[in-house]
């Protein structure tokens, strides 16, 4: 986070508070989110990313709530003027509880239930991103029942191989999301939707190519193909769809090996390519309205705003043979609060947070407390040689897809989310208790 610092005793501080006091008050493991940092990143997308689109019909930034969502964060998103992408009835319920403006909500999902569609249309969400022919029928049914016209977008599989982990790439042909462009289903979906003008209002086209992406060439191909379809829709149906959504996926730096794309720079690149592609197909000329662009960053807004604070429980040297050894530092959490290392081979770093140490560095593997050897938090990290039980370590960049993907594996209560700002801390999501877990168990 931007407000992270060290005090005279070498303790990590965030938002003016030191981590030793935070650990005393809220316990460990804990996710610590820097509110100012979150808000600044949200604003950067709105303003810096948005600026180059000003002459292009404008941009809407949808914060992807799947990265992390709770009521207060939904309020921050609303406050900063962003829209919100939700992908389940549960995420929508959080948005509703926060009083998030309905017209600024988009609903995603490849298998939305009738109940979820009803919840969304009753609340009056601004868009449903349609993902299958079955869903088109389902939305028509609910819209008819409620007597509303459902605003929809078509999720297009643009056929891009995004350069990221295969589990989080979403626009190549052989995966579950969207309507294939090459296979003609996207055009067919458009046709079926425009054939239902009483129940459906087609707003535009959507594409999301994947997550943790650094190379903008994938976005470029995706935008080109989406705009190609946009032009085809104009030709075939005589409608200039008012919106194009280019999805999220902007990568962040988990370690010093990554250089994240800055919102301003990204915005310029994206605006250039959108303008170029619109021109190439004769769209966006004075007699055709320019579509409004939307994007859906999740990780790039919330990821860097948060670190996880753990307490070291054990330090163990393991003999690897041939004189080699590895130091295992166990902390009071692990794959239940951050599954990303085990699931995606994700890289993290960590730092001794509770004191200064001048001891020489030693290579360590930071592991959790769960009953499997793949329970690794940080694969390789230099920590001071005198690291010991009771020390606190902080793992930065855990704002996205950590609490939101947390589990209660081994009946481990999930950690709290604590927000800091201007020297004050407050709990946004409280720590789970064993009683919470037992409450589900019918005995
Ligand atoms: N829009 C759509 C339609 C998405 O499916 C996603 C992410 C996003 C936006 C936001 O992507 P972001 O800007 O956060 O990269 N659990 C994985 C990431 C899965 C992403 C799922 N969809 C991880 O921990 O890396």
From TrEMBL:
Its cofactor is pyridoxal 5'-phosphate. One of its GO terms (molecular function) is pyridoxal phosphate binding. Substrate binds at residues 299, 340, 344, 372, 401. The modification N6-(pyridoxal phosphate)lysine is found at residue 66. Coiled coil: none annotated. Pathway: Amino-acid biosynthesis; L-lysine biosynthesis via DAP pathway; L-lysine from DL-2,6-diaminopimelate: step 1/1. It comes from the Bacteria. Residues 37-302 form the Orn/DAP/Arg decarboxylase 2 N-terminal domain. One of its GO terms (biological process) is lysine biosynthetic process via diaminopimelate. Keywords: Amino-acid biosynthesis, Decarboxylase, Lyase, Lysine biosynthesis, Pyridoxal phosphate. The active site is at residue 371. Specifically catalyzes the decarboxylation of meso-diaminopimelate (meso-DAP) to L-lysine. Belongs to the Orn/Lys/Arg decarboxylase class-II family. LysA subfamily. Homodimer. This is Diaminopimelate decarboxylase. The lineage of its organism: Bacteria, Bacillati, Actinomycetota, Actinomycetes, Micrococcales.
């Amino acid at each position: 986070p931007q407000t992270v610092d060290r005090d005279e005793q070498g303790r990590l501080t965030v938002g003016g508070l030191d981590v030793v006091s935070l650990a005393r008050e809220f316990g460990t493991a804990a996710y610590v989110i820097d509110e100012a940092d979150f808000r600044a990143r949200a604003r950067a997308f709105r303003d810096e990313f948005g600026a180059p689109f000003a002459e292009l019909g404008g941009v809407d930034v949808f914060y992807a709530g799947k990265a992390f969502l709770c009521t207060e964060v939904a309020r921050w998103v609303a406050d900063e003027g962003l829209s919100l992408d939700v992908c389940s009835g549960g995420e929508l319920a959080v948005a509703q509880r926060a009083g998030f403006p309905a017209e600024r909500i988009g609903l995603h999902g490849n298998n939305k239930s009738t109940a979820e569609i009803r919840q969304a249309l009753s609340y009056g969400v601004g868009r449903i991103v349609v993902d299958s022919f079955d869903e088109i029928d389902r939305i028509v049914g609910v819209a008819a029942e409620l007597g509303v016209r459902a605003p929809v977008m078509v999720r297009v599989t643009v056929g891009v191989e995004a350069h990221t982990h295969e589990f989080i790439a979403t626009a190549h042909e052989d995966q579950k999301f969207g309507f294939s462009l090459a296979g003609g289903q996207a055009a067919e979906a458009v046709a079926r939707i425009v054939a239902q003008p009483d129940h459906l209002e087609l707003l535009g086209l959507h594409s999301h190519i994947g997550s943790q992406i650094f190379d903008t060439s994938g976005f470029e191909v995706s935008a080109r193909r989406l705009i190609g379809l946009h032009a085809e829709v104009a030709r075939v149906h005589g409608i200039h769809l008012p919106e194009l959504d280019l999805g999220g996926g902007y990568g962040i730096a988990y370690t010093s090996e990554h250089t994240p794309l800055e919102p301003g720079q990204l915005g310029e690149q994206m605006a250039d390519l959108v303008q170029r592609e619109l021109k190439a197909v004769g769209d966006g000329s004075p007699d055709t309205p320019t579509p409004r662009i939307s994007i859906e960053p999740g990780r790039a807004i919330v990821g860097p705003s948060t670190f996880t604070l753990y307490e070291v429980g054990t330090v163990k040297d393991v003999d690897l043979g041939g004189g080699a050894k590895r130091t295992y530092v166990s902390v009071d959490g692990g794959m239940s609060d951050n599954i990303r290392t085990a699931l995606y081979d994700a890289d993290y770093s960590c730092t001794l947070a509770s004191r200064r140490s001048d001891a020489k560095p030693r290579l360590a593997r930071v592991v959790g407390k769960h009953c499997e050897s793949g329970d690794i938090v940080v694969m390789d990290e230099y920590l001071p040689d005198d690291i010991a039980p009771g020390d606190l370590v902080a793992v930065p960049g855990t704002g996205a897809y950590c609490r939101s993907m947390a589990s209660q594996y081994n009946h481990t209560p999930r950690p709290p989310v604590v927000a800091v700002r201007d020297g004050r801390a407050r709990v946004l999501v409280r720590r789970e208790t064993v009683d919470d877990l037992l409450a589900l168990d019918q005995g």
